[in-house]
Amino acid sequence: IAAGAAMAWEIAAAEDRVVADVVLNKPLMDAYTYLVPENLRDEIAPGRRVRVPFGRGPRGGRSETGFVVAVRPVEEYANERGSKPERLKTIDRVLDEAPLVDAKMLELSRWIAEYYLCGWGQVLSSVVPAGVKRNAGTRELVFYRPTETGRAALDAGSLTKKQRAAMAAIIDAGEPVRADYVASKADCGVGVVTSLKHKGFAEQVRKRTDVTEFDDVAIEPWEELVATDEQQAALDTILAALRGQEYATFLLHGVTGSGKTEVYIRAIKEVVEYGRQAIVLVPEIALTPQTIRRFRQRFERVAVLHSHLSDAERSKHWRDIAAGRVEVVVGARSAIFAPCQHLGLVIIDEEHESTFKQDSVPRYHAREVAEKRCREAGVPLILGSATPTLESWHAAQEGRYRLLSLLRRVGKLPLPPVVTVDVRNDPQVRKGRAIGRQLSNAVKAAIEDGGQVILFLNLRGFSPAVWCRACGASLMCPDCDVSLTWHRDKGRAVCHSCAHEQTVPRACPGCGAHELKYVGVGTQKLEEEVKQVFPDATIARMDSDSMRKPGSHDEVLTRFRHSEIDILLGTQMIAKGLDFPNVTLVGVVDADTQLHQPDPRAGERTFQLIAQVAGRTGRSSRGGRVYVQSSNPAEPAIRRAAGHDYLGFVADELRDRWDMSYPPYRRLCRVILRGPDEAAVKRRANEMANALSAAAKSRNLPVQILGPAPCAVARLQKNWRFHFQLSAENPADVRSLWRTVEPEFPTGGDVDFVVDMDPLNM
Ligand code: ADP
Ligand code: ZN
């Protein structure tokens, strides 16, 4: 058999054939090589998808879809060490009419797979939207054009009157036309056009066309602003890089209200004038009509990519961007993959937001991908924030990023004074209220004065725990190591980590006592309290429970803008980006919610959240104040945030990170193992960690293994979880170590694992 196969191979090779390297949607870095049959030679191209046999047997066990990443002569493959050309399988079919990704995107996706330790094919299938793969929103339509016989027949006068009129209409159009167009021009039925086709006087062409239409949004009037000195200085530096067409990452550190968006817009103006495109990434939650309007007012062709788009809309935007019909792409994380052919600039606003990291495969961070993409394209990247991540700040200190600062608010407005309230001694809080005396007086005064109030609390639901007074245990989710939150509107206790909901039993499941009690305050209870204390105020609550309906988020913000709401309370949904001049008071109801989480970033998150939510006030000459309630007022993150002291905070925090060997000084890679059997998960975690330690030692790689240990949430959705970390100064060492050990531990089976490079959660 082997001899026969080898002979068949030689015949094939003699015909000067090509092979294609194909990556499948699997956690593998390597491509599989397939023989390209003669009839597919013209169609095959990198970036197109193909159906290929995969698995055992000459025809493969199953059929799979993959992306072609290279097409090359068969000899080249045959000369590779260890290649078995006679064993090559053949591609079944080529999908897609044109490549879905270009060479640059292939390269970028390969880099992502290497960096984030996942499969190249996994990255590609995730970055190309489903609608684009299905060609959603397009349809193949039939058009007609004249044949030579048809033209001759018209000249010879051998056609009927109706045919003559139809033929003339087809010829006059000068391009292939639809039958109904001909029918209306020539005042005949569409049957006449088909009869022309049957006689060979006209022929059909098929073309794929967009069927979705979008309303053009009218550009609203816009008053040109005079840039502040700080804005101008930042802009001049960015423009110099733009004009030099050089890669550079700028860290635009601008306090809240310093006018960062105006800097972005002016930089984009320059790019668009050169005929290039800009990508602006914002957190999904900031994709409000207000944000979008700021861009639509200033640019004609803006594509907004948000998660509510239909497949057809998304795929239409994708084609418009690829064809250069779009100047500015505004979108959440995945917009970094927008197929701009003439990229001129990338901007990431609120770069500190954790939503820029994807928490499923590929677990990429948009900032890292943007850096890579901009470097390859030779264009600048701007990262903007009032509270940059320690990673970015450190990069700026080291000179890898260029720091641009906007230290003052626009219009000489001061940052709002912040009062930290120690609630441990507050009489109202001791009675179980969420809002202490000082904050409550301040709310009263602000409303009487005609101002508006934002109250921030990062816990949704009514009460964050159902607690037994007798034994001290909380009601837990049966599937997760998470205590249940009481949702009074549903009359049920809910797990915020999985879909579990249940009624609350009369007796404690642990000790049987009838002493269960709802403890703590979530946004629903806060709403009730605020209604009681301020019965005349109009109140709106904004959290993921109250904002289920699409559009409700925008609706509430519009009412708030028009001062139809006095008090807006909610979770982090209201902490960010909002620019409402009439907000004269911000209350942080509980600054401690994040503080005690077992995570090295707990302090950073607390600082960011307080600084961001404080930034929602004092945005006009009406001024504004901030009250921060805490039981740990001396905690550095809270103290520094109250003093608007970002520089002081990062100085402290960087020192701590250095002492603890945490990022940004080390790079971490977290491996999480999970499965239904606790002992098996633990065993596998130990095996993997030991294998990695041994390999690090034998290969002399400076990588430390930290752990394994149970995860902070030790059980999630019925699965036990253990984790360990790989820590190194150079991420390349982590990759190299992981890739050598990985093949020993195939995925699947009863213990599964995920690999998270540069994890944001511990
Ligand atoms: P940031 O994003 O830095 O918090 P914004 O970009 O939201 O700040 O700007 C705050 C407000 O200041 C916005 O209402 C904006 O229109 C306004 N603004 C920005 N730059 C100027 C300027 N040069 N002159 C006047 N107003 C400005
Ligand atoms: Zn659960």
UniProtKB/TrEMBL annotation:
Q: In the UniProt record, does the keyword Transmembrane helix occur?
A: no
Q: How is the cofactor bound?
A: Binds 2 zinc ions per subunit.
Task: Please list the reactions this protein catalyses.
Answer: ATP + H2O = ADP + phosphate + H(+); Couples ATP hydrolysis with the unwinding of duplex DNA by translocating in the 3'-5' direction
Q: What does the subunit section of this Swiss-Prot or TrEMBL entry state? A: Component of the replication restart primosome.
Q: Which SUPFAM superfamilies match?
A: P-loop containing nucleoside triphosphate hydrolases (SSF52540)
What is the organism lineage in this UniProt record? Bacteria, Pseudomonadati, Planctomycetota, Planctomycetia, Planctomycetales
Q: Where does Zn(2+) 2 bind?
A: C477, C480, C495, C498
Q: Which cofactor does it need?
A: Zn(2+)
Listed name of the protein = Replication restart protein PriA
Q: Where is the Helicase C-terminal domain?
A: 503-669
Query: What's this protein's function?
Result: Initiates the restart of stalled replication forks, which reloads the replicative helicase on sites other than the origin of replication. Recognizes and binds to abandoned replication forks and remodels them to uncover a helicase loading site. Promotes assembly of the primosome at these replication forks.
Entry GO MF terms: hydrolase activity
Keyword set, alphabetical order = ATP-binding, DNA replication, DNA-binding, Helicase, Hydrolase, Isomerase, Metal-binding, Nucleotide-binding, Primosome, Zinc
| NCBIfam families found in the cross-reference section | priA
What class does this enzyme belong to in the EC scheme? isomerase
Every Helicase ATP-binding domain range: 241-406
What residues does Zn(2+) 1 bind to? Answer: C468, C471, C508, C511
The species this protein was found in: Alienimonas chondri
Q: Record keywords: Isomerase included?
A: yes
> Could you say which EC number(s) this protein's record lists?
5.6.2.4
Name the InterPro entries on file: DEAD/DEAH_box_helicase_dom, Helicase_ATP-bd, Helicase_C-like, P-loop_NTPase, PriA, PriA_3primeBD, PriA_3primeBD_sf, PriA_C
